[in-house]
Amino acid sequence: MKRILLFSFLLMGWMIPSTSDAQIKLGISFNIGNQPVWGPVGYDYAEYYYMPDIDVYYNVSQRQYIYLQSGRWRFSSSLPYRARNYNIYSGHKVVINESRPYLRNNYYKQQYANYKGDRSQPIIRDSRERKYFESKGHPEHREWQREEQRKSRGQGNDNRRGNDNKKGNDNKRGDDNRRGNDNKKGNG
């Protein structure tokens, strides 16, 4: 009965629409591997980055920059021409986990104006945390890939050659050696 009540309360809380900006997500999402190496560290999941220096958004999953040009939102695989001298590695990025945040551009522009010119944000490329090695372009990505391949073949950190491999402890030539004391050729 307690489980049914708990489930009912959870279900009701999930179904009630929220007017706040916060999003409630069931389950845990990660997209570190999809985030570009110039993205900020500290986020296991990011839908968009907002760059206050140049008033541009970046859609992480689509790998597209979104910016206002001639009164229309443009979606592009490259930064706008007006930002051609912008250093994407050193500029501040704000993570926004909201669908189409550029439609509330005035809010974000005002909210994060104080980050303009901030060059102190650490980025994924420079991180030594192992979880960021998954990002393509990280200096340790290749080694991370090799380790993942070894793990998928059963040769990772929990190397099975010592305990489960037939050449290890369970080998018939080990403690239970047939050519030793019990060998017919040796005794007969």
Condensed summary:
The chain has 4 helices and 5 strands, in the order αβββββααα. The protein is an alpha+beta fold and 188 residues long.
Q: Biggest sheet: strands side by side, in what order?
A: 4-3-2-1-5
End-to-end Cα distance, whole Å, is 73 Å
Output the structural class.
Answer: alpha+beta
- The Cα radius of gyration reads 27 Å
Q: What pattern of helices and strands is seen along the backbone? A: HEEEEEHHH
The total beta strand count reads 5
On the 0 to 100 scale, the average pLDDT is 78
Helix count equals: 4
Q: Could you give a short account of the major beta sheet?
A: 5 strands, antiparallel
Shape: elongated
Task: State which percent range the strand residues make up.
Answer: 5-15%
Fraction of residues in helices? Answer: 10-25%
Uncertain segments: 5-27, 158-188
Overview of this protein structure:
This protein has a domain at 42-121. Helix content is 20%, strand content 12%. The protein has helices spanning 2-15, 105-111, 141-152, 184-187; strands at residues 48-51, 56-59, 64-69, 72-76, 94-96. It has a 5-stranded antiparallel sheet with strand order 4-3-2-1-5, with no helix packed on it. The longest helix is centred in the first third of the chain and has 14 residues, at 2-15.
